[in-house]
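Standup notes
- DV: blocked on the single-chain target, sequence here:
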Amino acid sequence: IVDSSGLKFTYLETPREHNAGILFMGHSVVKTMIIPPNAANYTISAFCSENCTTQFLPTDGIRIFANMLHTHLAGTGLTLSVIRENDDGEYQEIRPVEKNLQYDFNFQQTNHLMEEITVLPGDILLLRCYYNTRGRSGVTIGGESTNEEMCLAFPVYYPRVEMNSCASFPIFDQLLSFVLQDVPAEYQESFAVFQNDTSGPTIQAVLNQLEWNEQQINSFEENVYQTGTQFAFCYSDTDFNSTLEQIPDVCCYYNPAKPVRNCTLVETEEPDGASMTHMNAGLLVLLLSSLVFFI
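- DV (later): unblocked, structure below
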């Protein structure tokens, strides 16, 4: 086996115009990131808030040119989008940065975007992660083990800013609604543990008392991530910014114009009066070339 790997360094006497940066963003890696068992498509949302982009991004914004998505073994898909408030006060998706609904933990990579995507001060980076926990006997919590979970993105951008990390996590302010509606009475008192003990083993012991039917799964997701308040934060080496807010409710999503066909169809009259459709010359040459190749 001949190994051709290695490193190549290039020295330039003229400094480059911009330095690039990598942003750590998504759901904070904490034990209170909870995914119930028996879920076919459980969704966790995390975001980089408008307060953070307002504080750290330059007036002209940053330009994302590559990105890496990351979950562990239960992850089946992720989407990262740029969200902006419109004139009506609604949040709309400006552009998806990356969308992978066939995510495989064993095939992770940094993807270079076809077009650079601009993120302006006041924009929101919204990350949604999808999980399948069918076959698991207990809840899955956040953590570094591959049997635990993460929900992260690593956008690569320029010019580099001082913000190192931008993330969020739920504070469970709506948990009581879930407990009163969907937790059997004999287990409700034990859920008070969320107020003072959020260690992994304690959380798992409490939540694993439930059978986690479809109603409980949907209710937990709604109360924790859809209507629940999130602790959103960001920091640099010297500054820290945090707010309490809900995940933005996106009113409308990016809808690109339909692509223009590269080949056209032209109707012509044959000598006998019959009408036939001719493809343009470029496509015809391609077809003839293919015939020659296979013959």
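- Follow-up: The two ends are 37 Å apart (CA to CA).
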